[in-house]
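Morning. Coffee machine broken again, so started the prediction first thing and wrote up yesterday's gels while waiting. Chain of 384 residues, entered below exactly as on the submission form.
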Amino acid sequence: MQTVDKKSNIWKALSSLLSLNVNYQDRVFGLDMMRAIAILNVVIVHAGSWMNIFPGYPWIPIIPGVELFFVLSGFLIGSILLKTYLNDGPYGFKQMAKFWKRRWFRTLPNYYLILLLNIVFVYFGFIHEDFTQFNWRFFLFAHNLYDGFYGFFWESWSLSIEEWFYLSFPIVLLVLHWFLHKTKLERKYIFLVNIVLFLCFSILMRVLFGSKQQVTGSFSYGMKIEKVVVYHLDGIAFGLLGAYLKYWFPVFWHKSRNVTFIVGLFVCFFLMQYINWSPTDSTAVVLKIALQSLGCFLLLPRFDTIKSAPKTLRKVVTHISLISYSMYLINLSMVASVITSNIHIEGKLSAVVWYLVYWTIVIVASTLLYKYFEKPIMDLRDKV
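Came back before lunch.
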């Protein structure tokens, strides 16, 4: 009896350690599901380094997780930017600074913590990467601003894209506001012009410069195009376009959800998965990112209108959604790279065992990181 009670107490302690206090009333389940799908896709792909011994892994077509993140991020944060700008009050550096402070409280502490851990792990050999690839630009998100990088903190490429987008979008909006507001152009149209500019900028950069890069294969395409800031801002801009359409055309947004969802699935799974997008083809260099972003953008109305789900499913999905940023930061460098750098994985049984270990560590460590570091800092942000 005492043994049973002891096990029960241990389980309760573990459950309490990993449980998250969630206010489900303030959350949209569909958007949590979209974020959960995005991070699960990313983690599945990053485990591929030792699961490729299984033919066809990951066995199902996968929507690009990072592209889903970009579109969803633009949709959620774009809604904040839109409402801030449409307020009839003044729009200037004070409003921009407030937005940036909230944004940076959310992203920078976790990023710098994991960056420092990467430095320590690589320097002392826990991760077998070339330490010469690290430089000061990682601290300013400038390591992939206009060219690629490799071999150190790989997953940080997407964080640079987000940070530069949310730094530059309000600044360009302010410049447009100064020039176009004098023409009596309404703020809603100025905001739309800014979205279109950011949609077109990266596409134009890929046309002018990206298509002329010496791309030799998928890896080269990733390093020289996909993971470079100036070539990949349109995904987040598509998310802002979604926020704009929902705000000004809510009826259309709601009624179109099923049609756009079907078209979005067609784009994501047929056009992107079953058509050969050769990375050495200049047309693919220009259009692939835009089409991936468009497909994810078309999924938004359907996900945005899913408000509830069965209790167990809701708890699991919301939990994964909440810890998704922490999962993204640690799953490759802090977990997958440590395993592959220190463990000799040979045979299918060994691969499966370490695959399960990998997932367990990622979820548990991300939950702890979110609950005891990321969330307290966000709470501090709200107080400040």
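The chain has a mean pLDDT of 89. Going to sketch it on the whiteboard this afternoon.
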